[in-house]
Amino acid sequence: MITLSDFDTHPDFPVAGILFYDISPILADPALFRDACEALTPEPDSVDLVVGVDARGFIFAPVVAQTLGVGMAMVRKKGKMPGDLLESDATIEYGASELVLSPNGIDGKRVLVVDDVLATGGTARAVGDMLTRAGAASVRYAFLLELAGLPGREALAGTEVISVVEVPE
Fold it and tell me: Are 92 and 123 in contact (CB under 8 A)?
């Protein structure tokens, strides 16, 4: 079982006032990594497609997708993917980010978005917006860590949100 003590923390990174939760200790321990992936994986037959969010969501999403026997799509930062793409701006805890997604293969799918941290919900909301525009039948979210003192869950009101570990307010 993953707990808050499994993360390393770094104050004032990437900017002053932010406490960064580092997933490196979880990735370095095969048992913890397996536990994290299992905790992020919903019941079989409830998801048609897993979407990993750039960059740390890419670590967990392929394992979750393989476990479920479904495909995976990627949300990338703008300029990192070719083709006809959907775009969305994400306001995050310490800045902004432009995100892109290929709409291919999303129409009618039940989608699980996998990312490492839920903070303000800006990235997740932007991803959900692109998936809705691409025709997803439903969107739900799975995060390794949720910062409960920030409005991430409120930003995703009305959608299912799974968090493996919660940082209390």
Answer: yes
